[in-house]
Description:
By secondary structure, the chain is mainly alpha-helical. The chain contains one helix and no strands. The longest helix has 80 residues. The radius of gyration is 36 Å and the shape is rod-shaped.
Amino acid sequence: MCTACRLAEWRHFQTLEINKRNRQNALDANRAAYLGRKKAIKDSIKAGVITALTVLLFLALVSATRDAIRYEWETKPAMLKANGVK
């Protein structure tokens, strides 16, 4: 085999290796981007759930406070008055 043939074969294999490496780098970059988007979506869903639960707990607190105030200002005085307590 002549030197030119060996050099051509070596260049061919070098080109194949470079192409394989570039393809793998592109696949890795796409996978990283996909996983980043997936994590961002998961984090935004988690934040939405936490926000919804916080709002529901706040509404429950407001409702319980309203019921306690109503009891103290309406129900309790009426009950005491019915029992003859001034």
